[in-house]
Design brief:
Layout: H1 8-65, E1 74-77, H2 85-92, H3 105-113, E2 118-126, E3 130-137, E4 140-146, E5 158-161, E6 166-168, H4 174-177, E7 182-185, H5 202-217, E8 225-229, E9 236-240, E10 245-248, H6 253-270, E11 273-278, E12 287-290, H7 306-324
């Protein structure tokens, strides 16, 4: 009776769906082509970067790594009393035939810092063939040993710097360090003395403060001190090389050092020797004397420097060689 009519809107919708169904494979193909072209451009760009990188690497190798002009020619080491250029090459493992750019400066620095006597290292390359090495070497203020133990001032014995780090005495420091005093610290199994490590015993810091006060008054005084120790919780004991035992408190060192100097001068003028002296009291300082007279105090004669001593030894060696010839 009545025909079912389709509205115009529904007819348009069906036509669009039909057009999409007809056109979908073609659209997909064109989309694939666009994606392929983009991928091809990206691959070409990456390949170009790779070629440029490889060419740059080859150019860098030929210009620097394989260039004989940049072979290591000079090691510029700052003057120090730990090692010379030969020792630097041996300890740092430097290949003297290597190219300057092939040297691993980071590894060289780490090897040098592993040595207990070295506290700082700076390394630079200076074209065309110089390796500049600047080392900071610990400077000793005293020897350190466990109380009551035998201690010899010798190469390899433990020195301590002003920061409390212990390290073996290098050969080049022994000539100046041999006259330094010894600091005795208590023996503690849980805190042994170890090279390259800080001394954990708090007694060391107190003894070093006393030594700093003594040397601040007269730098030559360190040569007259045999050892310093803290035998108990309230005092420090300083023993001179001529046998005088002086007891100090833990503070007020400037006054006590001045009193000790006055007492030693008085003993020298009046011809007696001080065996013991207790400097803790501010007045009526108790002392004991020895029978023998003190050695007269002569004007200090400047000693030859380590460099002069080395030159004298070289001259003697040369003289002996010439005599054998």
């Amino acid at each position: 009776m009545f025909k079912r009519r389709t509205s115009r809107v529904r007819q348009c919708s069906r036509m669009k769906r039909l057009e999409v169904r007809v056109m979908s494979p073609r659209i997909a193909w064109f989309g694939f082509l666009r994606l392929f072209r983009r991928s091809l451009k990206l691959a070409f760009f990456l390949a170009l970067l790779g070629v440029l990188g490889w060419g740059g690497w080859l150019g860098f190798r030929r210009a620097f790594l394989e260039n004989p002009e940049f072979r290591l020619q000079v090691i510029d080491l700052n003057p120090n009393d730990a090692f010379d250029e030969r020792g630097l090459v041996e300890w740092a493992g430097i290949n003297t035939q290597s190219n300057l750019f092939k040297l691993d400066t980071r590894a060289i620095r780490e090897r040098l810092l592993a040595r207990p006597e070295v506290s700082g290292v700076a390394i630079e390359r200076h074209l065309p063939g110089t390796l500049a090495v600047r080392v900071t070497v610990r400077q000793p203020v005293a020897w350190v040993a466990e109380a009551g133990g035998a201690h010899e001032r010798r190469e390899g014995g433990l020195l301590v710097d002003n920061t409390g780090i212990a390290y073996p005495c290098p050969q080049r420091q022994w000539e100046t360090a041999r006259e330094l005093p010894v600091v005795w610290v208590p023996t503690r199994a849980e805190e042994p003395l170890a090279a390259g490590q800080p001394v954990r015993q708090p007694e060391l810091a107190r003894c070093l403060r006393l030594l700093a006060t003594v040397c601040g008054t007269d730098p030559r005084s360190a040569k007259a001190i045999e050892r310093v120790e803290q035998p108990n919780a309230w005092s420090l004991v300083l023993t001179t090389r001529d046998g005088t035992v002086a007891t100090f408190g833990l503070a007020d060192h400037a006054r006590q050092v001045a009193d000790l100097a006055s007492a030693l001068d008085h003993a020298a003028r009046h011809g007696y020797s001080i065996a013991t002296i207790n400097l803790i009291p501010q007045r009526n300082i108790p002392i004991t004397t020895r029978d023998e007279a003190p050695a007269p105090r002569a004007n200090p004669v400047p000693e030859p420097s380590p460099a002069n001593r080395r030159e004298e030894r070289r001259a003697q060696d040369l003289k002996s060689i010439l005599n054998r010839g």
